[in-house]
Amino acid sequence: MAATDGGRVVARGLAVPFNSVLDGREEMPDQGWDRVLAWAFRDRQYGNDPTAVSALEISVDADHLGRGLSYRMLSALRRAAGLQGHDALLAPVRPTAKHLDPRVPMAEYLRRCRDDGLPADPWVRVHVKAGGTIEKVAPASMTVSGSLAQWRQWTGLPFDRDGCVEIPGALAPVHCETAHDRAVYVEPNVWIRHGMEPHTA
Question: Residue 33: inside a domain, yes or no?
Answer without folding.
Answer: yes
